[in-house]
Amino acid sequence: MRSDRLIAGLAAAALVVFTPGLSHADTETARQIHTLLREVNMQRALKGVGPLKLDKRLGAAARKHARHMAKRDFLDHRSPSGRGFQDQVSSEGYPWRAIAENIGAGLSSPESTVDAWMTSPSHRDNMLNRDFNDAGIGYFRPTGEGKRPRYTHYWVILFGAQAR
């Protein structure tokens, strides 16, 4: 288990180190996203469920939602305008037949975020659902610009299964 984390961590670090033009914030975000995916996939493996792979469209929707929650200082699956994550996923062009979302805020690490989700039956069910094979992850850490939101770390993971 420890060696799995080490290998996954090195792979994420290599991705970050060898990606030209990333700022420190981009590097932190990439590291957080890959660590969160690794943690979710480890939980899935423990239950005999196949790994999730990142999908760019789900990732775009998740990133936008994480940023929007921080900028507008809310924590919900629906935006203050009433738009749900299903709408955002569809607008990114992901042809879903099944979709779910976990959100979180305040926890500073991917590991603690996944641990918290595992204690919630509905969040755990989303993570361990065999129907899902795609994921998109959004992580946003607000900087000092503008109004300070309630939390300093915002997490979104979208789980998807494409329409056939």
General description of the model:
The protein is an alpha+beta fold. It has a single domain, classed as Pathogenesis-related Protein p14a (3-Layer(aba) Sandwich). It has 6 helices and 4 strands; from the N terminus they run H-H-E-H-H-E-H-H-E-E. The chain has helices spanning 2-17, 24-46, 56-72, 85-91, 110-118, 121-128, and strands at 53-54, 96-105, 134-140, 154-162. It has a 4-stranded mixed β-sheet with strand order 1-3-4-2, sandwiched between helices. Helix 1 packs antiparallel against helix 2 (24-46). It is globular.
The SS-based structural class is: alpha+beta
Biggest beta sheet summary: 4 strands, mixed
Helix content: 40-55%
Domain tally: 1
Return the average pLDDT rounded to an integer.
86
Secondary-structure arrangement, i.e. CATH architecture: 3-Layer(aba) Sandwich
Main sheet: which strands, in order across? 1-3-4-2
CATH superfamily: CAP
Strand content: 15-25%
Shape: globular
Give the SSE order as H and E letters.
HHEHHEHHEE
Strand segment tally: 4
Task: Enumerate how many helices there are, as a single number.
Answer: 6
Low-confidence stretches: 1-24
Short description:
This protein has 164 residues and is of the alpha+beta class. The protein has helices at 2-17, 24-46, 56-72, 85-91, 110-118, 121-128; strands at residues 53-54, 96-105, 134-140, 154-162.
